[in-house]
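Table 4 source record.
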Amino acid sequence: MVDERDYDAQNIDFSQTEWPYDRADRGRFLPEDPKDPRRSPFDRDRARILHSAGLRRLGTKTQVLGPGSDDFVRTRLTHSLEVAQVGRGLALELGCDPDVVDAACLAHDLGHPPFGHNGERALDEVAADIGGFEGNAQTFRLVARLETKVMGPNGVPGGLNLTRATLDAITKYPWVKGGGPDPQKSLRKWGCYEDDAEVFDWMREGAPAGRRCLEAQVMDLSDDIGYSVHDLEDAVATGHFALERLRGEVGELEAIIQSTVDWYSDAISEDELGDAADRLFGLDYWPTSYDGSYRARAEIKDLTSQLIGRFCSAAVAATRAEYGAGPLGRFGADLVIPKETEAEIGLLKGIAVHYVMSPRESQPVYYQQRTIVHDLVTALFEGGPGELELPFAEEWERASDDAGRLRAVIDQVACLTDVSANAWHARLCGLLSTLL
């Protein structure tokens, strides 16, 4: 068997790779025989994610508004595709491998459960005694274990068996719960469950503790750009946010800024957000109204395009000013995001918070969604492996205690879509989900 870690010895040249990724970067936890050595390991990683069941399921998982609420709104799948396009462009500008960043962007939301962050909070509650639930850690678990591609020794699933560089690029929070640079914050956001630590530790061999690789930083910025710009577009197009209100109603901007600070803490000050508003709303291409006409839709599309270009160009210019013109990757550089750009992205995120995300928190449907998640976990745990899909039933059977069996149930529920969660709940628990 030829291990992809031996490509250097074969003098195989992957011309699309600029940053000098070494044998360790291209290595896989489970050695494989590459069927087509003309393809780079990173190209194969991207293909594995693109063809994964987890990516397909994102098509009916909530982004901001539920996938059944409107034909226009984005799902987690369309969001991920848009993030991948932004990330690939940034990678090409910076000289890191575009397939690594593209793959990370496609994969970044795979672990999110049905009903978006609402479902994530519910699963974290039911998993409190077994280490909690975190969407980013679930993403790592999915690609490293749950997705079907490679079988490891002793019949243990090997997930997609991605290369070290791609796995690391997917990992937004490269630490276990409570093990990050800020212990308190890392109790809320982390990237790996304890029982996935073997692959995680292999992935992080030689990496600076707590530091994200450049490709993960590019993925994270692309995600921020994607949902800040596109959630704004969705909010305008669906009528949740009327552009005229920014100039026509006293106190409207102040309320948006306050919602932003309340939701995202005080990482960006009110003054910085106010300055960002002056810059953004004064742009020649910022529309002042929206009536649904062709012209109005074209203006909104131009706005999203211009904003994405604005944010990407600012980050590339600042990073190049710090690190020079050569190819950048892994731990050879950190992405530099100007404070003004962070504030502008933050303000756009705050608009979605103020007009869409905060109001929905008090709607009965969001309480019902959390109830569905709690009910499903209880019903499936009590029902045992016979109620689980076969891969999760096998995970249940391999478990040595109730904690492992509960994790198998949570893995099953996390893989459900909004649609299938409602259907499973109707079958197992009654009629509540049919009302949603």
